[in-house]
Write a structure and sequence with these properties.
The chain has a two-stranded antiparallel ribbon with strand order 1-2. The protein has 111 residues and is an alpha+beta fold. Helices cover 56% and strands 14% of the residues.
């Protein structure tokens, strides 16, 4: 199993969540809403390029828009390989985290 980076996992989950509306601006907004942090466009598109090279996502062009200067919006979808990588990551996290009792990390949080 090839592990995903946290950024790859976050972007794949975002694409899964947005379904057919997964394009740059919507993904960035969803990530900010979910994490409270802004993911720079350069980082987002770098991760999307890496995921496309690995065969985890596919890109499709939408219709051109006059407000976007005629450029088509690029939409992303998970490939079968991307869904499998995400499922493997979920199962890995479940296996690892169930080994640690909740009290193990709560002990150091008292003030």
């Amino acid at each position: 199993m090839k592990e995903l980076t946290k950024a790859e996992e976050m972007v794949l989950l975002t694409i899964l969540n947005l379904k057919e509306n997964a394009y740059g601006v919507a993904m960035r907004r969803r990530i900010k809403d979910a994490t409270g942090s802004v993911l720079p466009y350069g980082t987002l598109y770098f991760v999307l390029d890496q995921l496309a090279k690995k065969g985890y996502v596919t890109r499709t062009s939408g219709e051109s828009s006059s407000e976007r200067g005629g450029r088509p919006r690029i939409f992303y979808t998970l490939s079968f390989k991307g869904r499998k990588a995400l499922r493997d990551a979920y199962e890995f996290h479940q296996k690892i985290w169930k080994e640690y009792p909740k009290e193990a990390w709560e002990k150091g949080t008292e003030k």
